[in-house]
Every structure is written in C-alpha cells, then in structure tokens.
Amino acid sequence: MTFKSFFRNRMTELSLTIIFIVGFLALVSTSQGVLLSRASLQGFLTYLAVPIVIGMAQMVVLCIGQMNLAVGAMGGVSTAIMATQMADHKVSIPVALLVGFLGATAMGAINGALVVLTQLNGFIITLGTMTILLGVQYRLVRTFTIDKYPTSLPDFGKKNIVGFPLILVIAIATSVVLSMYFSRTGSGRRVLATGGNALAARLSGVSNSRSVFIAHTLSGALVGVAAIITIASLPGINRSIGGDWMLSSFSAPIIGGVLMAGGTVAVYGTVIAAGVIRLVDIARAQYSLDPSIVSLTVGVVVLSTVALSEWRRRRTVRQNEGRKVLPA
Amino acid sequence: MNVAHKIKSLVSDQRFVLSLLTVALFIFFGLKNSAFFNADFVIYPLIRDAATLSVIGLAQLCALSIGHLNLAVGRMAAVSALAAGAAYQYLHVSLLLGLFMGLFVGASLGALTGWIIVKSQVNAFIVTLAMDFALLGFVTYIYVTFTGATTAFTTKPAGMEFWRNTSWHQYCVAGVCGPKIFPMMLVPAIIAIAVIGFIFSKTRLGRELLSTGSNLRAAKLSGIPVDRRVITAHLMSGLLAGLAGIMLAFTNGSFTAAIGSQFMLPSFLGPVLGGTLLAGGSVAVLGTFIGTLLTLIIRQGLSVQGIGLETLNIALGLVLLTALSLGQIQKMFTAIRMRGRT
Question: Which residues form a coiled coil (chain A) (predicted)?
C-alpha cells in the first residue's frame, strides 16, 4: 500500500528519470559512443549546472503562485557586478563573488518588498524590475567582454570531484539544501502553505507577506548561485548573459511537476527535467537541427504538461469529493 | 462652487492629467533641444510608433478587461505577420487580403488560447506564457525552413510603400491639408481605438466583458456566458496583436521573426499608464493611446538628449513601477471614499 502510493505520488519524477535514462542511452548508441567520451560527458554535465539552479530560482517563486520574469536580468547584473569588481577594482575572487551573490539576493528582496507593498502580481513587478536591471546590466558591461580577471576562477570552474564537475556538485548540493528547507523547516512549510491556500494559511497564523518576501529573496539568492556557476564556467562575461535563462527557468520546474497554481515544490523533478532538456539540446547538436526546434519542442511539452497536471488535479479533487459522500 | 467641482473632477481624471503631462514633457524636451521638434525625423516616426504600440496596448487591454494577462502578444503579432508575409510571398495576394489572412490567424490563435484557458482552468498568464514559448520556436522554425539565410519574407505588396511613408499631408479637403506629422499608419490605430472604445462603452458585449473581469462569480450568476466571454476577450487580443504585428512589418518593410519581440513591455505600459486596472473590470481605451505616446516621448526625448539605451530602459522600468504604485494608492483612496459613502 505505502509502496504503491510512493510510486503514485512520484509518477512525474519516475517517468522523467526513465525518459532521461532511455534518452541518454539512445543518444549514446546513435552517436557510436562519442557521448561517453571524457570531453563530451564533461560538457554535458558542466552546462547542466546553470539550468538546474535557475530552474530552482523560478520554482521557489512558482510555489507561492507567482513568477519571476527577472531571473535572467538579475543573473546578468550579478555576473556583471562580479566581473567588473574583479577586472576594474582588483577585488579578490571570493569577495567579488560574495558581493555579486549578495547583490542578487538584494534584488530578490526588493522584488519581494515591492510585491508585498503594492499587493500586485509578482509578474508585473518583475517585468518592471527586469527592464530596469537590463539597463543596469548594459551600463555595467556595455558592449565589451570582460575577462581580465585571475585565471584561477576559470580553473576553479574546470575542477572535478570524483569525475563530476565541481560546479555541478555545487548545483546538486544547493538543490539538496533547498529540498531540506522545504521539507524539514517550519519556514519552508509556511511558504508552501501560503502558496497552497493563502486564506487558509492566514487563518492558521502564517504571515503571507513574509512568505512572499522570503520566496522572492530566496529566488534572488539562487540566481546569485547561478551567477557564480556561470562566471566560473565561462571564459568571459558580456551583456548576453542571462538573455536565454527565462525559458529554461520555467520549463524545468513545470515539466518537473511543480504546480503553476502554487503550493508544491519538486526539487528532484526540476533537476531531472533540466537534465532531459539538456538531452534535447544535445540531440539537436548531434542531428544538426535548427535551435528553434528546441524551444518549439520545449514549449509544446510545457503547454501539454500544464494541461495534464491540471486535469490530474481536477480528477483528484473529484475523487476526494466522491469519497466524502460515501459512508465511512 | 460648480467651477471648483468641475476643476476637481478634471484633475482627478487620469486621462486629463496624463495628457497634460504628455504635452508638458513634449514642450520640455523641445525647449531643451530643438532637434526634438523636427517633423520628419522625430515627430513623424514617433507618432508612427505610437500608432503601432497603441494597438498592441489595446491587445493587452482586451485581456486585462477580464482580469487576464496575455504574455504572448508579441509572438501572436509575429505569427500574424508571418501569415501575412507568407500570403504576399507565395500566394501573391493583394494588400488587403493578406492583411485579413494575417488578422484571421491572429484571431484564431487568440481564440485557441482562450479556449485552452477555459477548458484547462489554468491561470491565463501560464497558458499565454507557454503559448509564447511554443510560438517562439514555431515562428523561427518556419522562417528558417522557408526562407533560409534571409529569415524574412521580403515581398512588398502594392500599396505598402504608401502606408509606410506618406502622411496626411497629401489629403486636402477644401484647400486645407492634413498635418505633415500624422502618418497614414495612424488610420488603422484610430479605427482600432474607435472600435474597441465603442465595444467597451456602448455595447452589451463590452459590459459583459467588464463584469466578467470585475467579478467572475457575480457575472456568472447574472447569466453572462463567462466562458464564452473569456474566449472573446482573447480572440480580440489576438486579433489586435496581429494587427500591430502587420503594422510593424509594414513600417519595417519586411516580415521577420524579430517582429513582436519588443512588444511585451509597451503592451503593459500604455494601458497601465492610461488607467486600466490590472485586476480587470475597468479599461481606458483612449488612455492607452495617451500612455503610449507619453512613454514614447520620454524614450525619444531622452535619446535626442544623447542619453543611451541603458538609461532609457531604467527610466521606462521606473515609470511602470511608479504608475503601478500610483494605481494602488488611488485604489486605496477610492476604497476609503466608498466606505464613507455607504
């Protein structure tokens, strides 16, 4: 019984894992094993780290039923801060990374504060802050590529721990911590309660304003982590950083089983969905298809996942209603 | 007393304040740098852009009227332009027929979006966001597949130049000619503003849309077919987005995948500045045009001063956030006043 319900509750994660394994094996066999070579495996895993973390940055805002359109712009500004600190002001690497991380966290906190103060949808607030931050990013980076910082940073990005890229390990570790936060701490559960039913949460003594603020701040902090990973894995920083983050930040959590209405998180689902999307990207490169086919596929999959999850939710609601009518 | 009351009601009218601000800023920028008053290079393109962006603002306004958002306005515009461009390129249709085909595609896309929202009961902004992603890939894919490296439909139908470059100056009635600064592109925008304004202020459909937006349950209980109205609102939104996309394609002179990629922020700026409530139930059709004009004057005015792109972005973002907070404060005052009345 518990065994059965374990699998029923984890259908999305389970099927995604199977899709990931099957897809990976299919790509390995059609590429005559090239994908298993050291270099391509390394590339696959390294560029998986950023989608995982920005997927989670979006997830924490989705779980309160809002969205953060500014993830890309926040990441862009944060990496720009780090790069200019190191290149122009000769700040040491750890300090620069910390300043950039705190900057991203502060941007998230500002988003949260604005949402709470104006009582408007997070979407429209982050649309405004996104526009402002894009301006700030351009002002910091202009049209240059900033790469005049110590090479120990890119070297750090190339490090391995037992065969895994260090930055992927950082991403996975972040996801484990986040998962613990939502499942083990009171604060995490209060945030989820706000997302699930704001009125019920308020009546049980949860401060919804605080939950909204925490979710947006957390989103900013996760963007900060993504920014650190980005600057460590790329040879230089320019104004295009963050420009393509939006689609992947939404698609990973949505495919991973996070309800758009709020109230749920799926950390493992988000991670594995980011892996599946990465596979689609690899497949595109392998069969030399046009890049637009990836966004088309991902968009259609996201749209059908949303419809499917809603249909499943309503079926559950109907079943529960049926159960109530029956005598116990 | 009566005069004081009139002044008070005029000042509290957002459209009046907005127009005053627009005119003041216009004069301010002109005085700072007389290049701003250049009819051919500044004012004419400014009004032409305002025409296109007002229509995209109206597209957003239709979705806002029922309390929804349409994040796919830009991409719907792109698909409509794609359809019209393909019709001109491969079917060699006339300008008007191609326009109608593009509009039909936009309206169908909007109706499909509305239908998905109604059937799945998923939040409108999620559905339109996913729609945006799907269409983004679709549009790029079609352009790359059909046109190869150019990624554009470049066939210009007869009459396109006329809409692009001429002004009302060529039309004279009894010796009085139209002003040189009014582009022909203003005509479709005026028609759109008039029709949408008429629908929302004078027709039953408009009232039903607004009551759906202000209180869904009350609307349902009063016998309004709310599901059908949701689809209608998104259909109108898609249709207007399509019109804006084709207008931009005419202005640019070619149909490309980039059309509509810059539409999202302006589509909200116009209606929100004009006084349309994000929560639904209240629209400002003429205000959308004035709001759009205001943002363009700020943009153009700053760029004539030689201020770069980055400051423009910062300024526009601040304008949006300020306008939103003002709306919130206004709502608070209205609530207090209403409480006093009852």
Answer: none
* Residue A326 clears pLDDT 50, i.e. is over it: no
* ipTM topping 0.85: no
The answer to whether the beta carbons of residues B303 and A124 sit under 8 Å apart is no
Chain A residues with CB inside 8 Å of B321's CB? 114, 125, 128-129, 132
HSE (side-chain half, CA atoms, 13 Å) at B323: 26
Of residues B214 and B337, the one with the higher pLDDT is: B214
- Residue among B2, B53, B129 nearest B294 (CA): B53
Is A325 domain-assigned?
no
Residue A179 sits in which domain range?
Answer: 40-306
Cα(A187)–Cα(A273) distance, integer angstroms: 26
Contact B120 A307 (CB under 8 A): yes
pLDDT at residue A273 greater than cutoff 60: yes
Interaxial angle between packed helices B14-32 and B285-304, expressed in degrees from 0 to 180 and rounded to the nearest 10: 20
Contact of A75 with A104, CB cutoff 8 Å: yes
- Asked whether residue A318 is assigned to any structural domain, the reply reads no
Phi, psi of B166 (to 5 degrees): -100, 160
- pLDDT digits over A96-151, tens only? 999 999 999 999 999 999 999 888 778 888 988 998 999 899 888 888 888 888 88
Distance between A149 CA and the closest CA of chain B, angstroms: 25
Closest CA to A124 of A115, A135, A134: A115
Does A12 map to a domain?
no
The predicted structure's pLDDT at residue A324: 53
Pair B331, B276: CB distance under 8 Å: no
Rounded mean pLDDT of B272-279? Answer: 80
d(CA B314, CA A80): 16
What letter does residue A164 receive in the DSSP assignment? E
Closest CA to A149 of A75, A97, A221: A97
For the stretch B198-221, pLDDT in tens is: 999 999 999 999 999 988 889 999
Angle between helices B226-252 and B44-65 (to 10 degrees): 160
In the predicted structure, residue A94 carries a pLDDT above the cut 70: yes
User: Of 1.10.3470, 1.10.357, 1.10.287, 2.30.30, which CATH number belongs to B16-341?
Assistant: 1.10.3470
Number of neighbouring beta carbons within 10 Å of residue B96 = 10
Which two three-digit tokens encode residue B69?
A: 């958002």
pLDDT over 60 at A322, yes or no: yes
A164–chain B nearest CA distance, Å: 32
- What predicted TM-score, i.e. pTM, was given to this entire model? 0.82
Per-residue pLDDT tens over the stretch A139-172: 888 888 888 888 888 888 888 887 788 999 999 9
- Higher per-residue confidence, B152 vs B61: B61
Chain B hits for A250, CB-CB cut-off 8 Å, are 129, 133
Interchain pair B320, A299: CB under 8 A: no
Instruction: Decide if pLDDT at B342 tops 60.
Output: no
* Domain CATH number, residue A133: 1.10.3470
Report the residue of A64, A124, A288 to disrupt the B interface, i.e. the one with the largest count of B CBs within 10 Å. A124
> 3-state DSSP call for residue B77?
helix
Packing angle between helix A49-62 and helix A208-233, nearest 10 degrees?
170
Q: Report the distance separating Cα A271 and Cα B279, nearest Å.
A: 34
| CA dist., res. B150 & res. A268, Å (int) | 42
Taking the Cβ of residue B328 and every Cβ of chain A, the question of whether any pair is shorter than 8 Å is answered with yes
CA Rg value for chain B: 21
Chain B residue with CA closest to A299: the answer is B134
pLDDT confidence bin for B192, thresholds 50/70/90: very high
In a domain, A3, yes or no: no
Please indicate whether, in this complex, the C-beta atoms of B317 and A314 are within 8 angstroms of each other. Answer: no
